[in-house]
Amino acid sequence: MVDEGLAEAETRMKGAVRAFEDDLASIRTGRASPALVDRLLVEYYGTATSLMQLATISVPEPRLLAIRPFDPATLKDIERTILASDLGLTPNNDGKLIRLNIPPLTEERRHDLVKLVRGRAEESRVAIRNVRRDVLKDLREFEREKLFSEDELHRGEAELQKLTDRFSEEINEICKKKETEILEE
């Protein structure tokens, strides 16, 4: 019972870390990355469709994204979506290809992004602590129902805390790495 609870906790905590990493991928740094636009949803024949399904996205230069739609008719829709997004980028459309120049970030914008990253990191740590709380509640309930001993409960609590600490530290490492990336010129 204890091991099942710990396995569930580990799976859910890994999910929180993965969600945090995916979330950070869409935060702009000074470099071009296809992850900046892969979450954008383009209105395509009445359906919101991922940009990744409508076009190839490449990085020909460190500060340039090239978006080549499979269907040239979607160029205007893709352009409209990019303009409406919170990326703050202006697309250049040549009829076949959309180019996105990634300007260097201002110092103020860099610090705003670092604050955003730290906020998202804290949300992820809270998610991990919520998993700990839920599993701990389950373990204590199982112990009250005499499904295992008090010693097993204490062992489970200790292991759960180790998991929580490990995944919280992983969040911290990812956060520091992203902050460094943002603050680089």
Task: Explain what the structure shows.
- This protein has 185 residues and is of the alpha+beta class.
- Helix content is 59%, strand content 15%.
- It is built from five helices and six strands, in the order αββαββαββαα.
- The protein has helices spanning 2-25, 51-54, 75-84, 107-144, 150-183; strands spanning 41-44, 47-50, 55-61, 64-69, 91-93, 98-101.
- The strands form two sheets. A four-stranded antiparallel beta sheet has the order 3-4-6-5. It has a two-stranded antiparallel sheet with strand order 1-2.
- Helix 1 packs antiparallel against helix 4, helix 1 (2-25) packs parallel to helix 5 and helix 4 runs antiparallel to helix 5.
- The longest helix is centred in the C-terminal third of the chain and has 38 residues, at 107-144.
- The model has no long low-confidence stretch (mean pLDDT 88).
- Assign the CATH superfamily of the largest domain: Ribosome-recycling factor
Architecture (CATH level 2) name of the largest domain? Orthogonal Bundle
Identify the CATH class of the largest domain: Mainly Alpha
Overall tally of structural domains: 2
pLDDT averaged over residues: 88
In whole angstroms, how far apart are the ends?
A: 51 Å
Strand order within the widest beta sheet = 3-4-6-5
Number of helices: 5
What is the SS-derived class? Answer: alpha+beta
Total strand segments: 6
* CATH fold-level label of the largest domain: Topoisomerase I, Chain A, domain 4
- C-alpha geometry: elongated
Low-confidence stretches: none
Determine the strand fraction and express it as a percent band: 15-25%
Rg over C-alpha atoms, rounded to the nearest angstrom: 22 Å
Which series of helices and strands comes N to C?
Answer: HEEHEEHEEHH
Helical content stands at: 55-70%
The description of the largest β-sheet is: 4 strands, antiparallel
